[in-house]
């Protein structure tokens, strides 16, 4: 069976924009987040509190988060969760000082990417995250754990299931309340997705704690999502207009486009609370700002471009 409702975790402002070479003004980012909220997204990942030299595009996090924070105070079901990435205590301090209520740490299943992305081994990065997750929870914040390179790695090739399962267990043991399984370079196929979710269940990880995070490099992101939904996953990460990539992973292209995801979900009769017309208009507006068309097939079809 398929779920009746899916929670879309929108990553466009963070994963989408982090790879853009040209700096996007903070006012444009704030409008992007507001437009996404007005289109019905109820989880919008806003930015990262990382070293500004590592991700220059997100160096304005101190200005952006306060500019959108009011969305979290909207009444009842209209309240928007605004998670931010924090790699270490310094990042967490910066985020909590601005009232962040949801944070995410980001680990890697492979040593190559842990080094490229965090300047650490896998073990060292988990040691770095332990006090971050503990303090976030003490502060009453939600703590998501991302795991990158769950399927393949640009330097190491296919990633063994048991390696992924091992790091997932350790992230849960740190106290993460949700795990997002990242196909950072978009090489996963549906059978591999089902195999990983099954292996995680066999290791005692409940599907209810899992989200999926697909990049669309080989055009498999929707098929992979459907495999995950059939397995019982109900939280899916995606990026408006298919923006995105990771500056520290060679060959990472855009995320699954939120519009493509919503088109499929609504076609399956699955509720998302998202207004596809408003969302598409937002991605067209952002594409105009960035000066190139959205790679999303659904945006192009609906916008006639
Ligand atoms: P490092 O060079 O090892 O840092 O980088 P350090 O701990 O040695 O500190 C060096 C200096 O940086 C110090 O300053 C720190 O204060 C400062 P100094 O004393 O020399 O003046 N510093 C900071 N400044 C501001 N904010 C901070 C911070 N931390 C240290 N938070 C570090 C280690 C983790 C900082 C660095 O590697 C980093 O910032 N990495 C971020 C990389 C990143 O953001 N990648 C993209 C997100 S992951 C992704 O996209 C994948 C995902 O989408 C899922 C998927 O698709 O797979 C999530
Ligand atoms: Mg990503």
From TrEMBL:
Residues of the Pyruvate carboxyltransferase domain: 6-280
Pfam family, one: HMGL-like
Alphabetically ordered keywords of this record: Lyase, Metal-binding
Entry GO MF terms: hydroxymethylglutaryl-CoA lyase activity; metal ion binding
Superkingdom of origin organism: Bacteria
Example GO biological process: L-leucine catabolic process
NCBIfam families to which the protein is assigned, alphabetical: PRK05692.1 (NF004283)
UniProt similarity note: Belongs to the HMG-CoA lyase family.
Protein name per Swiss-Prot or TrEMBL: Hydroxymethylglutaryl-CoA lyase
